[in-house]
Amino acid sequence: VSGLLITNAxxxxxxxxxxxxxxxxxxxxLGVVPRADILVMGQRxxxxxxxxxxxRSRTIPPGVRIIDAEGRVVMPGFVDPHxxxxxxxxxxxxxxxxxxxxxxxxxxxxGGGIMSxxxxxxxxxxxxxxxxLASRLATMLASGTTTVEIKSGYxxxxxxxxxxxxxxxxxxREGGQxxxxxxxxxxxxxxxxxxxxxxxxxxxxxxLPRVTREFPRIAVDAxxxxxxxxxxxxxxxxxxxxxxxxxxxxxxxxxTTKGMTDWAVEHAAASVDHLEASxxxxxxxxxxxxxxxxxxxxxxxxxxxxxxxxRAIIDGGGAVAIATNCNPGSSPCSSMPMAxxxxxxxxxxxxAEAIVGATRNAAALLGLGDRGGLExxxxxxxxxxxxxxxRELAHEFGASPVDAVVLGGRVALG
Length: 414
Ligand code: NIG
What we know:
Elements: E1 3-12, H1 23-27, E2 32-41, E3 44-50, H2 56-59, E4 65-68, E5 73-76, E6 78-80, H3 92-99, H4 104-109, H5 114-123, H6 126-142, E7 145-151, H7 158-174, E8 181-189, H8 199-214, E9 219-223, H9 231-243, E10 248-252, H10 260-266, E11 271-274, H11 280-287, E12 292-295, H12 297-304, H13 310-315, E13 320-322, H14 336-346, H15 351-357, H16 360-365, E14 382-385, H17 392-395, E15 402-407, E16 410-413
Parallel strand pairs: 1-4, 1-5, 6-7, 7-8, 8-9, 9-10, 10-11, 11-12, 12-13
Antiparallel strand pairs: 1-2, 2-3, 5-14, 14-15, 15-16
Bound molecules: N-(iminomethyl)-L-glutamic acid.
């Protein structure tokens, strides 16, 4: 078994009981060990101890590679829990229209937006789609993402949704070695197809059962919005999905409120994502629930300058995660450091809260208990930053803060 010892690290361990961190106290505790040795054997972290706490000659197996972090921050790799990273084509012409004043939802209503990416995905070959995804995964790794969730949702019809999920599953087979670990989500209710009035019905009675057979227990997602899926249709999809054993996630309160967030929280959804338009009462209910609020600040930055009130959720005792929402329309960004920088400026999070949201809480949202912290037994996905203080992660923006990435115990970059 190969081994790695990172010495003289400022270790941001996030160690503690399993599950998402919540509230101001929980989300500000980074478990920093100021000068630490981190020992990795194979794919796992063995321990994190203060420098000098162990007699190296006795406990470090021979042949272990030693990296001197020279006081730099070592932390868990980023977990990006909400992306649409499998797509084809581009939306640059629509961006021209948007900058000239056409709102995102008007473009969607006119048959563009998500639908234009659906057409491009259907027209692309598997090889083209896989190549685009591979290049995005490499870009993500370079800015420190070691686990990424990827949604279907640009297929819509049963055949094309399953095709997207199979392509994501193919990328997942190489994930964790070549590029970040890939976790698939079935975004079955993303848009309405103007050419297929039976789409909602077919999704519930045909796509969902086929997804259950081929991808049991995969999370099922929908976009509840004007011009996308109605509350009633989302509830029908989610009721059927829950009966079939799927965790639920939902794009909710992005532009308008439909009551979806309250329903999702009452039905123990894994996450409610977006929340830019949520009322204070709804945010309080999210905060009091077991559902993780997944904030997407790169979307506000690119689309319309609106951001979810993450401060209210955390101060209400809730659990917050942050994600890039990487997609060709509302958030062309795959950088978790950028999401962190924006979450602190725009969602009202502290740097520590943003770090927890980008690691441990993101992993918990995806149901991954083996990552998001530097703890004995955890998967050895870790970053050596350029910085000696983790707050620089939030303070600096626009350049990669990552000097090295360790992916499953192997130095993948740096
Ligand atoms: O989360 N809002 C729905 N889905 C994505 C946008 C996808 C797209 O525009 O292609 C989002 O913002």
